[in-house]
Amino acid sequence: MDATPVWFMRQAGRYLPEYRALRDKHSLLELCHTPDLAAHVTLQPIRRFAVDAAILFADILLPFEPLGLGLSFAAGEGPRIARPIRDAAAVRALPILEPEESLGYVLEAARLVARELPPHVPLVGFAGAPFTLASYAIEGGASKTFTRTKTFMYQTPEAWHLLLDRFADFTGRYLAAQARAGARALQLFDSWVGCLSPADYRRYVLPHSRKALSLAAAADVPVIHFGTGTGPFLEDFAGAGGDVVGIDWRIPLDAAWGRLRNGQGIQGNLDPAALLAPREVLRRQVREVLDRAGGRSGHVFNLGHGVVPETSPDAVAFVVEQVHGG
Ligand code: CP3
């Protein structure tokens, strides 16, 4: 491919009127649970934009349902976990999941989408990284400070490592299953790992991310390792694995690329808020990302995090044109 490939995290979501129309009729979990609907939503941005990848419509927290943690999404408030993990006994009581049995509906959606996509648009499968999953499982919902998560990590390190090992094992096998179902790339989301110090990342998280990534690598499709706020420990983050490392806008793309392992590609890193800026500001910011990549192969253009609901679809179309125009 000559032009830099481009896709967007959360490219299917509330900023699209056709998504909102479906959400008026179905809850988020209903969309996820119904392979036809999940496949349809996955394809919505593909019909509208010349993006170079589709990301499967699902959620990183879906495994919490078969784990028995109780998952719901309250309007405007984000995820709620009814039975959060607060002690070692709760970790030991977690069932071992088989992706095909417990999340078969996600794999079925992947098979449907893979059949519908044009050959030049690969499907990206995804799952939550051990740390980010643990943070939701322990907090019981979103958090800004991750106080409960860090307390658990420091106070009961054995239970912590057991929990992250369980998540690593499941996530790795779940990613590989998505590849068997037709995903041609996989992304591991460690969205909140930037709340940790470099030393704590290394001690409490890195070995588990490495395990998840190495299980996913067995599927023989490219794996993207994404996190936000990873600048302070990027060498370690990249060292955990991934063919491509996803970064956010808090670090210049060229500086980040120089700190990856030999041969690793880079994904990112436009600030999602740039899509809310006037066109000339947006154009300049897209240009800056492309300039920092310098036309080197191995750059996948994306945002540094997901599209926000306030975004105009026209702004997304504009970025795709700018990136493809070089
Ligand atoms: O287009 C896509 O990116 C595919 C679908 C996708 C969703 N969630 C659907 C969704 C993906 C890749 C995710 C990943 C996900 N889910 C992450 C990692 C990525 C990130 O954003 O850091 C996380 C942390 C979650 C957990 C989650 N799900 C939260 C915190 C929320 C609420 C926040 C919000 O925006 O309201 C969700 C809900 C959710 N998952 C929505 C979508 C499209 C919101 C829209 C809705 O309610 O219809």
Describe the structure.
The chain has 326 residues and is α/β, with parallel strands linked by helices. It has a single domain, classed as TIM Barrel (Alpha-Beta Barrel), CATH 3.20.20. The chain is built from 14 helices and 9 strands. The chain has helices at residues 17-25, 28-33, 35-48, 88-92, 99-102, 104-116, 130-139, 147-155, 157-180, 198-217, 234-239, 253-257, 279-293, 313-325; strands at 54-55, 71-74, 78-81, 123-128, 185-190, 223-227, 244-246, 265-270, 299-303. A 7-stranded parallel sheet has the order 1-4-5-6-7-8-9. Strand 2 (71-74) and strand 3 (78-81) form a beta hairpin. Helix 3 packs parallel to helix 6 (104-116), helix 7 (130-139) packs across helix 8 (147-155) and helix 13 (279-293) packs parallel to helix 14. The two termini are 12 Å apart. The model has no long low-confidence stretch (mean pLDDT 97). Bound molecules: coproporphyrinogen III (CP3). The site of coproporphyrinogen III has 21 residues, from strand 3. Coproporphyrinogen III binds next to strand 3.
CATH architecture: Alpha-Beta Barrel
Largest sheet: 7 strands, parallel
Spatial strand order of the main sheet = 1-4-5-6-7-8-9
Q: Find the count of extended strands (DSSP E, 2+ residues).
A: 9
Tell me which ligands are bound: coproporphyrinogen III
* Count of domains: 1
- What low-confidence regions span 5 or more consecutive residues with pLDDT below 50? none
Along the chain, the helix and strand elements come as HHHEEEHHHEHHHEHEHEHEHEH
